[in-house]
Amino acid sequence: MDFAVLPAEAPLEKTGQNKDIGQEDGTANSEHGEEEMEVESEKEEEKPKAGGAFSSALSSLNVLRPGEIPDAAFIHAARKKRQMARELGDFTPVDSEPGKSRLVREDENDASDDEDDDEKRRIVFTVKEKSQRQKIAEEIGIEGSDDEALVAGEQDEELSRWEQEQIRKGINIPQVQPSQPAEVNNVYYQNTYQTLSYGSSYGIPYTYAAYGSSDTKSQKADNTVPFKTPSNEMTPVTIDLVKKQLKDRLDSMKEMHKANRQQYEKHQQSQEDSTKAIERLEGSSGGIGERYKFLQEMRGYVQDLLECFSEKVPLINELESAMHQLYKQRASRLVQRRQDDIKDESSEFSSHSNKALMAPNLDSFGRDRVIYQEQVKRRTAEREARRARRRQAREQTGKMADHLEGLSSDDEETSTDITNFNLERDRILKESSKVFEDVLESFYSIDCIKSQFEAWRSKYFASYKDAYIGLCLPKLFNPLIRLQLLTWTPLEGKCRDFETMLWFESLLFYGCEEQEQVKDDADISLLPTIVERVVLPKLTVISENIWDPFSTTQTSRMVAMVQKLIDGYPSVVNAENKNTQMLLKALLLRMRRTLDDDVFMPLYPKNILENKNSGPYLFFQRQFWSSVKLLGNFLQWYGILSNKTLQELSIDGLLNRYILMAFQNSEYGEDSIKKAQSVIACFPKQWFAHLTGDKTISQLENFCRYLVHLADTIYRNSIGCSDVEKRNAREHIKQIIKLLASIRALDHAVTVANDHNVKEFKILIEGK
């Protein structure tokens, strides 16, 4: 709060001049600001003398020095000025509690000495908030240091406000006698905010000048402008002028009407477009609603279908595993019986066992002799009975003359085994028929499921494609197809072709509507994908656990099935396909296991083999021809397996390892040539069609050397014999040359022809 002590007397200035009350020193102004007070003029009825006295007392407020005691007239003038400021609304009231003075000393330290004496004489003023004009002044750059400019602006504002109030009250504005030089009389004071002169508003020809102290006048002189008396002359009104104005107004109204009409047409067109858009959207919303409803129904159907499959698929897997296990047990039983028969006959005709080193109750293999002899007798009786039945069947069909022991497959089963197999098979089929007995047809029938997705495809193909249904259908149909293929085994003669089954016929034309096919449509490859994911894995299991490579019938059927898949479904059944690689790997493993576990070639002295009716001879011949049959079965896979793999299995693993051993242990003569012809007949002709030079494939070198040795042996045996035997020996040598030429071993054929003076070499080669 600021303190100001009013002086007792002060010289009076001219009426209308407004000064500050309670002027502060420079330090107080910079810290706290100035306090304003506006003075309202006296009423019109007061006499000029009284107005002059009041003005003199009022103007004396500006010259009160600090420390002076104001008199009664000064206090009355201050109260009057405050009253007028309150009425004008530009004054903040101070606290007026009883017992307190109205004046607050500026300097508290100066008032501390005579605090009790001056208490009653003080006038208290409060520091009010800054007025709007002060705030504007601060914004336009008048800082607290420009006190005089701010005070001058406030004085001009109060003067202007006071003059306008007097005009509103209808008071005649008195003439102001200038006391300043003549050059100042023609200007009026203009504050920061230029206000309109009341003289110009009412057409008064005289002007006002700003009055005040000499310092204030010097500061205001730069901001004043000359006041010009407005002209009261008016343009004369004529008919042409009126017509022109009316015409201008009419033209303006026409332009406005035209603009309004254009705006109206624009709004009318916008309304029509909006109406059409609403109708179009309402029409299209019906299709969207149907689409949403359909997709929601499909969503619920697919969820129910997956929930059903999540419960039924484990049952289908169990039934499929049970069926595979049943077939595997039967195949393993037949293989085990063949291995036992070979062991029994080998043990029976073995002549090199050392019985002295064995316990009296054990045989050469360490088995209990009594129990083993009983088992051997039972197996021998069963084996001979099966051979007799096969021999009888060949006699009835007239194939007895061409048959060789060892070429037939001993796959006959006992009645007990057949009965047990059929009972278990029927049980599994009965269980499979109960898998979906508690399910609606629409959730297990392939036709019903297919129709649901066909409707989706035909109605909303875009969403059908976005949902990748074409990629999901093979997996969706997988358990249903495997259930139908439960008893499917292509190794059996009565096995039905899978392309004639119901599931294949139902899905054959799926996605093949009359409309134009879409590029990259996954439904086109539905059946090939099912073959890849269902048929190939099933064939892999059959090849690994059920197929018997010794069986020519089973091998032929298996080769035919795989070749059919290669020819009919080349997009999936190829070397790059994972399931195809697994199938070929299973085939190779089964062939190697057969080569290691089931092939056996006995070795007997030649004097034992001279008796062609003896047991060792028959056993030897049977094992030889079974090996040749296995060689032929291996080479049936030509075109499916690589040549390198086939040559490794058939030539290195079987011919050079077992069959050549039998050749060397056989009689050299016509029988050996017949066996050699049978072996060469198994080789694919494509192996030798594109060979260049005189040499055959490297794996057959040992076999070729055996043929050369066979020709030399036949020639040596014919020396000293009759001419008939010599001619027969010569014919045998020519046959050997033909055999060598048939496998493109021309170097060995030329050697044999030169050694034995065979002149028909070219004829033999061309007639190979």
Automatic annotation (TrEMBL):
GO biological process annotation, one example: positive regulation of transcription by RNA polymerase II
Domain GCF C-terminal, first and last residues per copy: 447-658
Signal peptide: none
Pfam families xrefs: GCFC (PF07842), NTR2 (PF15458)
Domain of life per record: Eukaryota
Entry's Gene Ontology molecular function annotations: DNA binding
Principal subcellular localization: nucleus
Cellular location(s): Nucleus
Sorted UniProt keywords: Nucleus
Region (Disordered): 1-54, 79-125, 137-162, 377-415
Biased composition (Acidic residues): 33-43, 107-118, 140-157
GO annotation, cellular component aspect: U2-type post-mRNA release spliceosomal complex
InterPro entries: GCFC2-like, GCFC_dom, Ntr2
Ranges of compositional bias, category Basic and acidic residues: 97-106, 393-405
Family of this protein: Belongs to the GCF family.
This protein's name: PAX3 and PAX7 binding protein 1
Organism encoding this protein: Catharus ustulatus
Gene designation per UniProt: PAXBP1
